[in-house]
Write a structure and sequence with these properties.
Number of domains: 1
Order of helices and strands: HHEHHHEH
Shape: globular
Structural class: mainly alpha
Largest sheet: 2 strands, parallel
Strand content: 5-15%
Mean pLDDT: 86
């Protein structure tokens, strides 16, 4: 909860009404509720989704830190921790968060395809796209 309130304060201090802000890594329903309540219709939640085996292979290819070197079984256990059934508002549950999403986007293809999908939705919503997909 503290994190979400800090984000709200930071966004309110840094942005005027025409700016767009992206917040990622929302992991619990309570955070989403705080953001929705604070920004009303200006808050749009996207759920970016890919099959678990694909997500695991992407983590392995990144080689970012020691957490990226989990075995597949450990990765599955980690995913289960982040998807508690019947979570409280501030327990991690990616699946509960995904249920609240305004848009669900399949991310099982390339980064360029994901960018095109996101750009299309942002264009429909009349939200300016600052970077082109070729800049990723």
């Amino acid at each position: 909860m503290y994190w979400a309130l800090r984000v709200v304060d930071k966004i309110n201090l840094d942005l005027n009404p025409v700016n767009v802000c992206l917040v990622d890594a929302l992991r619990n329903v309570g955070e989403i509720e705080i953001l929705k309540e604070s920004f009303k219709e200006n808050f749009i939640l996207f759920s970016i989704e890919a099959p678990i085996k694909l997500r695991y292979s992407r983590i392995l290819s990144r080689h970012r830190d020691s957490n990226d070197l989990l075995s597949y079984d450990d990765f599955i256990k980690s995913e289960e921790k982040e998807n508690k059934p019947n979570p409280s508002k501030f327990e991690q549950s990616l699946s509960a968060c995904a249920l609240l999403a305004d848009f669900h986007i399949d991310n099982s293809t390339s980064i360029n395809e994901l960018c095109i999908k996101l750009s299309s939705i942002l264009t429909i919503l009349k939200i300016p796209v600052i970077a082109s997909c070729s800049q990723i």
